[in-house]
Amino acid sequence: MVREFDGEEPVIPRSVLVTGASSFLGGYLVARLAANPAIERVIAVDSRIPSKDLMRRMGRAEFLRLDIRRPAIAKAIATYDVDTVVHTAPSIMDSAEHSAAIKELNVVGSMQVCAACQRSPSVKRLILRSTSMVYGASGSDPAMFAEGTRARREPTGGYGRDLIDVEGYVRGLSRRRQDIDVTILRYQSMLGPRIKTRVSSYLSMPVVPTAFGYSPRLQFLHEEDALAALEHATLDSRPGTFNVAGDGVVSLAQAVNRAGHVRLPVAASMIQPIIGVLRDGSLPTMRSGTTGYLTYGRVLDNTRMRTEFGFEPKYTTSQTLDDFVTRGKTTPLVSAAAWRDLEARAVVAATALQ
Predict the structure, then answer these.
(1) CATH number of the domain that 147 lies in?
(2) Cα 159 → chain centroid
């Protein structure tokens, strides 16, 4: 079992290793930790070299180009006497289409990271960036998923399946090494003006295919809150599994309207192919298994995020969406103000008919 927080004062980590350092979350987390003088050493790890801008932001952090699927990760943890490992390598899910190679990176890479932590006497914390996709998406889902709620229709492939397996390895580590504090953060769909995700690509399409006859409820996590939650988990050890999401929900129709784009209702099974057609025949940018998500939506209960994890997001779902539209790279066909005015008139008209 993952150990729960026992009320003791947190101990600032001395030597932190972050995987997935070329991704938005991994790279910017490294930058934040490197700017903290209380942390002696920050090690950034990835098989890909971060952008020049990201490398500059990392400051004093040491970058190691290595593949976490190889035993070299254990040598790095031992060499730098690492006490805290932040496993953000699965953040590749934010932008990359799932493939056999990525599955190997997620699953085999995570197995190697867990094995390295288990063998290292210095490691005392492991933080995993997971995803709300582990809950799946179906018509029988509850209104909100709590951390203990099982998926009604468990993902059989894609990132959802990968992270179910990865979470299992991490929990196994916690059982074998009960002196290691394990924190699993299940992130809701992320949006923001800087980060590029599949949801942001989808909402940026001028014409957005939606499932005919369905009005899925969506919930978002702002990029800044996503980073802040990872930093909080690193600096203030709170073992357990936590949903991380902004308050409130919006419907997919509202999200498309606020982005100033136009919905194209189609049969749910046609969403993926039509996305490809609308992108000039290129591969769809939505991750595999998203048909259910775009049909039924997914909402998380974030109560434990506040009461046990001790984290308060700055942005609600609605504010996250508005910031993405205002400061992001999406170009509206119809202004958000026009859509809001139309929504207000519709409410007034509906009230008058009652």
Answers:
(1) 3.40.50.720
(2) 11
